[in-house]
Amino acid sequence: MYAYGPVPSRRLGRSLGVSPIPRKTCSYNCIYCQLGQTNKLQVKRESFYPKEDILSDIEKVMNPANVDYITFVGDGEPTLCKDLGWLIKSCKQQWQIPVAVITNGSLFFMEDVRQDLKSSDVVLPTLDAGSEEVYRTLNRPHASIGFEEMLQGQVDFRKEYPGKIWLEVMLVKGVNDSDESLVEIKNAIEQVKPDRIYISVPIRPPAKPGVRPPEPGRIIRAHEIFGTTPDALDLTDRESGEFGLDNFPDLRTTIIEICSRHPLREDQARDIDTRFSGAESIDTMLSDGSLVRVEYQNVSYLLPANFIRKTKQNNLR
Ligand code: SF4
Q1: What ranges do the domains of the chain cover?
Q2: pTM tops 0.85
């Protein structure tokens, strides 16, 4: 399944997600990643799947009345998909729904990536480091991408892109939340000139043990340092809203599909449970071992068991 949802998004409303790449294929291996460790760290763009199949999958789950954005997001970095431009244009032609791309912004130095993104309406890149050192610690990029090259790519993209850029800054305790780091990030943001900034913190179980959100005072300090041009908006609370379940056949498929891309809080999973009838329930999936409960910041999350196994294996490497 390449398309799923719509899922409730704090930035995009009812967002129909499209993942055109294999799970955890990424140019980064961020310590805060909610999808676990990167399986394939790469910068080479590829056609991972037939683009026509991806489009027909979007068609299958599409209910235009129930979707605010078609969002290319990926279980990794969507700009690694060589067909992204074709897919965005095809969606725009077929449905009158805005297209968003959530990306780590690391490949904007490539002209073909910038060209591919041009037909989208909103691009949401990440920029949460202002120096090479923090960049390497936090985002753990592919060895061929340097901080300055990544930043210059985002600056060049801003000059060429007619749509909106909503930048996301993820703050991690003790890594990029000092005054020095925040000022460096602000300097980088000023070069990119986004239309919006979102400040977020890790709210789901991270790839690297020990990753924590900053203290509330540091988040307030980030708002002070980033200032008001544009306003930095807060994404540090939990998301709410209903998941679109129309195209899922049963509870098991629904929970595994959504959890693999978007770790679910237990209360969200139990809410989904009430919307299906049948013998299976969240409790049967927990007891037969297909789901595992993980506590993070005093909140209970449910993750697919194979997801946990892979993350543990990768953490041991
Ligand atoms: S957070 Fe995004 S950019 Fe970072 S490793 Fe995960 S998928 Fe890749």
Answers
A1: 3-234, 266-316
A2: no
